[in-house]
Design a protein that fits this description.
Layout lengths: L1 H13 L3 H4 L15 E8 L16 H7 L3 E7 L5 H10 L3 H4 L9 H11 L4 H7 L3 E7 L4 E2 L4 H6 L2 E2 L9 E3 L6 E3 L2 E4 L7 H17 L7 E10 L3 E4 H4 L20 H4 L23 H32 L5 E7 L4 E2 L5 E2 L5 H4 E7 L9 E8 L3 H8 L14 H5 L8 E8 L2 E2 L5 E2 L3 E8 L2 E8 L11 E8 L18 H15 L1
Helix pairs in contact: 3-12, 9-12
């Protein structure tokens, strides 16, 4: 039985006997493969502050349903708060300081494949394919949509899932004649006419076809949802779930002792790529516009949650749910007006922390459980390899947290790093900052230490001139005043300890 096999594989890591691991596990799998299937669902720009984590901003009934059979991770971190570099680090299990992928262009699938070749490793899908899995994928997995005709897609996936569909309303700029999408769009199109819906529809069809076959190989499926990434475009029914006027605008302002010039992103980082920039000053958005954007984001979260439920239903209907590991996560977190900023691009907890849900069939200790163990997106690769009896490749930075799935108190690592870089920039106060700066944040024991240096962003040189350091206490809630206070000046011993952790990965 597949549930027994998955538990037995996990016990090889944790040292628990297979008999005790599968006690009371009686449900047989419909499809008998030697190893479990895997479904990885990656949302784009989904912050942790949603219903499944106990927040009332937007309900997530389907993620809640998944969590009842899963472990929910409270301290999961991305390795770069930007789509392309984050996904590259996830699929390569490599820190940006080692892959040198620090921009969206570098995070395109073809560039990630080239980097993998230079590093002497395989991407996660390619590695599973090499070790006997049928790999299936589509949507926004890298910084470009996975397309069937590209060579990079053929290296990763045996089957590529199309995701052609609608995504927002284009508006022509009267000056430049360029077309840009509106930031929000409640469409009259159906659920499966949008890109994400089309992708999930094709994933469901593949599962249904697979269920009719007597397949000898397990599958490894990656579904890259573009939502809730802007434009906030979704079928109107999901906008109707959220009353615009009921949106609560955040009043969290940047504290005076924060390294504002370095650590905060530009206020116009989001609107600058949408048609709305013609009408609004991003530095002073009116309350009505903020509420419109918050409603649009919430609608897209609800849409993504609906599609997750669709995939879970399909697993059950096809009989694959009893022998399929399910992972749900996001490429990074997100801000909705905190610090007077929108989107991502920073090392603050709102941007660096991601939702992470892992379901291992038959593992009761991992059902309806919550762990505060520190994990990173780079750890998914070795964890899934361990669970599926696939060799963990040498030379990667990730560490398997399979032991945590068996015991939520167990932690495979003491700390994790998140990186960011900045190009030359002039802020609103007309101050020009160094042409190339970089930073690494070390998350350990409830603290976040950030070190900023001047130098080429791709090299992350720890020996370069240090521009400033930050230390935050996140034992308290991330929105509390104390967690926003840079305490580096009053905690020199803690700074010294975490500087050593930072040096280990940047040297």
């Amino acid at each position: 039985m597949q549930r027994i096999l998955i538990c037995a594989l996990l016990c090889q890591v944790t040292g628990v006997t297979a008999a005790s691991a599968v006690d009371n596990q009686t449900a047989p799998a419909v499809h008998s493969n030697e190893r479990p299937n895997v479904l990885v669902i990656i949302a784009d720009d989904l912050m942790k502050q949603v219903g499944v984590y106990g927040y009332d901003f937007v309900e997530t009934p389907n993620l809640n349903r998944l969590t009842k059979e899963s472990m929910l991770f409270d301290r999961a971190y991305c390795q770069y708060p930007l789509c392309g570099p984050s996904c590259a680090s996830l699929f390569l299990s490599t820190y940006p300081s080692n892959s040198e992928i620090t921009c969206n262009q570098g995070g395109k699938s073809s560039n990630v494949q080239k980097k993998a070749e230079r590093l002497g490793i395989k991407t996660m899908p390619a590695h599973f394919r090499e070790h006997g899995y049928v790999t299936v994928g589509g949507g926004k997995l890298y910084h470009d949509t996975v397309l069937p005709e590209t060579e990079s897609a053929k290296l990763d996936f045996s089957v590529v899932l199309p995701s052609k569909g609608k995504d927002g309303v284009n508006v022509k700029d009267p000056k430049t004649k360029d077309k840009r999408t509106r930031i929000t769009s409640a469409s009259e199109f159906g659920v499966y006419e949008h890109k994400d819906g089309a992708l999930v529809k094709n994933a469901k069809q593949w599962l249904q076809q697979r269920a009719k076959k007597s397949a000898s190989k397990p599958f490894f499926m990656c579904v890259g949802l573009k939502k809730p990434h802007s434009p906030y475009a979704a079928p109107k029914r999901f906008f109707n779930l959220h009353q615009r006027e009921a949106m609560q605008i955040t009043d969290i302002k940047p504290p005076g002792d924060i390294l504002t010039h370095y650590s905060l992103s530009f206020p116009n980082a989001l609107l600058s790529v949408h048609a709305d920039k013609q009408q609004y000053d991003a530095y002073s958005l009116p309350a009505a516009k903020k509420k419109e954007m918050m409603q649009g984001y919430a609608a897209c979260v609800s849409y993504a949650d609906f599609l997750v439920g669709d995939l879970l239903d399909s697993l059950k209907q096809t009989g694959f749910d009893d022998n399929t590991i399910v992972v749900f996560t996001s490429d990074h977190g997100y801000k909705l007006g905190e610090y007077d900023r929108w989107a991502k691009f920073t090392l603050h907890e709102k941007d660096a922390v991601v939702p992470l849900i892992v379901r291992v069939p038959g593992l009761q200790s991992g059902h309806n459980a919550k762990s505060d163990a520190i994990v990173g997106l780079i750890d998914l690769y070795p964890t899934l390899a361990t669970l599926c009896d696939v060799p963990v490749p040498p030379g990667i930075d990730g560490i398997s947290f399979a032991s945590t799935l068996r015991d939520k108190q167990s932690s495979a690592r003491e700390y994790i790093h998140t990186f960011v870089t900045r190009a030359e920039r002039t802020t609103s106060d007309n101050v020009t900052h160094p042409k190339a700066i970089g930073a690494s944040a070390t998350h350990r024991n409830g603290y976040r230490y950030t070190q900023w240096w001047q130098g080429e962003p791709a090299t992350f040189p720890s020996r370069s001139p240090i521009l400033g350091v930050e230390l935050y206490d996140h034992y308290h809630k991330s929105n509390s005043p104390i967690s926003q206070r840079n305490i580096s000046a009053v905690a020199p011993d803690r700074v010294k300890e975490m500087q050593e952790n930072c040096r280990l990965v940047t040297d």
